[in-house]
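Form 7-S
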Amino acid sequence: MTNHSSSYRNPIIPGFNPDPSICRVGNDYYLVTSTFQFFPGIPIYHSQDLVNWTQIGNVLARPEQVPDLDKTLINGGIWAPTIRYHKGTFYVITTNVFVDKPHLDFTRWRNFFVTATKPSGPWSNPTFFEYPGYDTSFFFDDENDGQVYVQGSFYHQIRKEISQSKINIETGETSAPNRIWSGTGEKAPEAPHILYRNGWYYLIIAEGGTETGHRVTMARSKNIDSDENDWEVCPTNPVITHFDLPNELVQCVGHADLFQDTEGRWYMVLLASRAYDGEHFPMGRETFLAPVNWDGDWPIVQRPIKAVSANSFTKRTDLRPFGTKNDDNYGGKQHWGMDWLWLRFPDTSKYHLLNQNECILTGSDFLLDDPKISPTFVGLRQSHVKCRVTVELSNIKLLQNDDSNLPSTAGLTAYLDCKHYHAIALHRCMDQEHDLRLNHISSTSGNKSINSITLSSASTLILAIETSEKEFYFEYKEQKEENWHRLVTVSNKDLSTGFTGVIFGLFVTGNASAQYSNFSYQML
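Output:
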């Protein structure tokens, strides 16, 4: 096995990959992260050395597995999955959150779990269960007649509480939750996980909120059913935080899951953000790895946690296919690659794969700033601080019977959410078929602006977004040209907020269709 402690590079899974949870089965490690209002939900990553990670599927790959995802808003949707393996079955437990519902309305939280015999799937339809909160986690207590427990976080704006119920994993029936710990006094005790070691049940949680005050804290008890007063608090809490290290690049450290490797060494996966000047972190919360010394009663995590330099990557360009190869198991049809994401449930009739590297998208009555409905949009996570994406845009057509007043556009966007995005888009006017306007569309905190230039008619336009630590650069050129034209430079600070991270997306709006080809992702 690889010497993990010296060869991995943080973040181990870069880009929009928050709230990591991990389990080991033999020599294999499986890790899941949150996806909020994006679909498919919960990517599952695989590694055999904790260094090289590959996405092998999505846990929530069918709409029936996550009903009402189309009713979720910004920062709602799928929160904080936990993955566990027990007696030949994989379990992923999570919460679908409806942030527009009142805090005291417990339908705000819809908790469920799914199962699979292979981590790549297919995963089952959901089993729902009652719990008045979020960040739910399973613990299979083989020391206690095989009883299964679920821990979760009661919403901190009502009261601070980590509580626990017994659960029947065949039916989803749960006992009344029992309060087991309230944390160390910081806000938002959440993200609980329990593990058993040397006769003790260790409870690990996050506190302080998922911003700069984030931290990991712990308590333990000889009896998993103990009330709060019987849990012994770690004398060196927090186990890890960067709250007191404001000059470190890595911030917002928390939401951890502890595990052992194949040689018995302890590690934790946790979320953190790379914040340049403390306020530029458009990729949001990423997955980090930290070695743990657990020779004594309590784990010790060396800090500070460092991240790989933005300049340390070999410059390389990868063609990122839209679709998989023709698969005889699916009647020779192509399917979108597992790493592409949609907003909520897509209207599949709007997305047509021509081959692996070409697709046609058709617009709808919804724009990128619609708060709840899915526009025609599909994208990939930004996963490097310095990168460049390009795509060829051609065959923009206005459709007939236009009853919509929406602009007919097609383009490329750096998208965080419906209130925070920048886009470069080609606009065709119905009354001036040959007038091609290239727009920079900016939506920051709900304030929208559009700047335009007029182009000569081009059969194929190539669009690009390049990134640096603090800026996005939007560029274009016609296919026959050698030189790029920069349309605009914008700060990425506007996209450094919330629970998710930037997605490079293709989109079409209004009564139009467009062909996209040869999407490339270059590490700079």
